[in-house]
Amino acid sequence: MPVGLFRVCLLVITAIVNHPLFFLKENGTVPENTEEIIQKMKEREESLRLEQLRLEQEIADQEATQKALEKAVVLVEESKEEKVRWDMWTALSMVIFLLIELWRQDFQEGNWQDIGGEEDDMAVLGKAFKGVALPDKAVLASFYEKRILGTTGDMARMREMVEGFADDLLEALRSVCNRDADMEVEDCMGVGSMYENWRVRKPFVCDLIVPFAPPEPYCFRCQTWCSGDSFPPDEQGYGTIKVCRADEDETGCICDKTKLGEDMLCLLHSQVSSTRPSSEMEDLLCFKNTQYLDADQVMKWFQIAVTKAWNRISHKYEFDLSFSLLDSPGALKIKFKSGKSIAFNLTPVVQYENSDVYFISHFPRSSLAADVPSSTHWFLTFAVYERRFIQLVSKTLPANACHVSCLQILSFLHGKQCSLTGPSGLTNYHLKTVLLHLLQARPSQDWAPEKLEARLQDMLKFLEKCLHEKKLYHFFIGNGKVPAELGFPIIFQRAEPLNLFRPFVLRRDIYRKMVDTFHEMLRNMSALINEYTVHIPLAHTNGIRKEPL
């Protein structure tokens, strides 16, 4: 019992001692208001909740940013894959295109001139001209005899007179020039329709070309569009002429192609020898600050030289000489006291290497070089080889062959039509090119005189086909079948064929005018021929069927 009481007392004493209100802590205070404590706890809870929301928002933003980055990475990878696939398709398309282009060129090279064979293989004229018929053989023969044959004798006399005077004029030109500083002029050569005996339209104009060369120690180095360097499509058929010293390396030193530092010096060329004075190159008729021959400078030099030469020999002749065109170097006109006149062209040219291909500065009365890229670009003329080819082929044809007659008739009809409706882009050179193609394609016996009507029809069909396709290829450029007897340069035979109708592809107005003029010529053909043909009795034409085109 005493023990139990003792334990109870000890428990009570212990409880009293440990009560919090019995012994207060140091500096401790007993809260007076429980509600204040609760309010603070709620505020703390609210701040913790807001902090939690802020942290959750930041985590959500980070997750969204991460997803956007992952999506961007996926898109980049997909675009790379798509680009690779697109590049593969592009490369494959280019390969296919190149294969097609190579096949086309190979096919074209083998077939671009294979136009011979049966007449059914020739292109037929459009449906609008099925009713057009050529005059019969008797009418064509009468027309040719009356209108064209009579001009042959006049052309021969005129050629003889012009050539004699041109030789005398060039000899005087050489005498007035400084042999040490001026260009050296060679003998002239006749080219074109007057010397190929197919010109029919008056006034007759002789075309003479005069090769010239620079004085020693200089020489010309010619570069063409097919020499290996890249030329734009609109510069095909052109070339440039560089004036160099004869002892200068053709390839040139590397110091001319790279910029050396101020502290570097070429061991082969001193600074004095590597740069020529500008005045010296201008005296050599070069374009300003270049070594390239300038066509405009050549024209001015030639006109001044011809004027000086005429002043020296004018007392020997009883006529006057003047320039008929100031934008052509040698478009001259002889005026007699009787009032009659003779026109001829004396055009300076530069020989291409050792061939009879020439760089020509200006084409008088022609649109062939109407859009020259610059005055340092010279057009190439193959007129000498064209004349030789016609002479070579003529030896293999029957007597009195009709090839020249076809070209004369077609040239006459085209000229008459142009006088009625105005000039067009179609020129006599295009007509001659058509004849050259047919001369190479058809056998010799097809050019017998009695086949004049059929061959004239072939020329019209071939020309219509070229107009429709906007393709008439130069006869010599890209033609691997040129006779070896001509000695034609192989570089031009291996070149890509040159389309003479290419300028009309982008100039639709000129092309439309050219086609319309051709169609009008077809409609008016019979009327134009009958106008210059004597009356033929009906008995001569009985039994002769007009073959429609």
Automatic annotation (TrEMBL):
Pfam families per record: Mab-21_C
Mab-21-like HhH/H2TH-like domain ranges (all copies): 404-477
Compartment(s) where it occurs, according to its Swiss-Prot or TrEMBL record: Cell membrane; Nucleus outer membrane
Membrane disposition: Single-pass type I membrane protein
Keywords noted in UniProt: Cell membrane, Coiled coil, Glycoprotein, Membrane, Nucleus, Signal, Transmembrane, Transmembrane helix
Claim: Membrane is one of the keywords in the record: yes
Domain of life of the native organism: Eukaryota
GO cellular component terms listed in the entry, alphabetical order: nuclear outer membrane; plasma membrane
Coiled coil: 38-72
Signal peptide feature range: 1-20
A Gene Ontology molecular function term of the record: protein kinase inhibitor activity
Keyword Glycoprotein: yes
Family that this chain belongs to: Belongs to the ITPRIP family.
Summary of the function given for this chain in its UniProt record: Enhances Ca(2+)-mediated inhibition of inositol 1,4,5-triphosphate receptor (ITPR) Ca(2+) release.
Stated name of the protein: Inositol 1,4,5-trisphosphate receptor-interacting protein
Gene from which this protein is expressed: Itprip
